[in-house]
Specification:
The protein has 4 helices and 4 strands. By secondary structure, the chain is mainly α. The strands form 2 sheets. The chain has a two-stranded parallel ribbon. The protein has a two-stranded antiparallel ribbon with strand order 3-4.
Length: about 100
């Protein structure tokens, strides 16, 4: 069965472990459409089940939050820090 791009995105994001992140670009590439990072953002904004699909674990290539539909960027940062993601200021520290 062919899964839609959005379904593939949700499947990928659902597998990001606690304490981990992927960028919108990485998710788009893994979903088979490397240039569709904006569509990944749209899918995250329309996430139907944030308990199963941890959209807070998807960040910008620059480590920035780039929005969070479930309480704003400060909430996203707080959740990620609680999960053990390292930050430099308000951006994810990828090093």
């Amino acid at each position: 069965m062919n899964r839609s791009f959005t379904e593939r995105v949700y499947d990928i994001v659902a597998k990001i472990p606690k304490g981990g992140v992927l960028t919108y670009k990485q998710v788009a590439k893994l979903a088979g459409s490397p240039g569709a990072f904006r569509a990944v953002g749209s899918a995250m904004r329309n996430n139907p089940d944030k308990a199963k699909i941890p959209c807070h674990r998807v960040v910008g290539s620059d480590g920035g939050m780039h929005g969070y539909a479930f309480g704003g960027e400060s909430v996203k940062i707080k959740i990620l820090k609680e999960e053990g993601v390292k930050f430099k200021g308000e951006k994810v520290d990828f090093e």
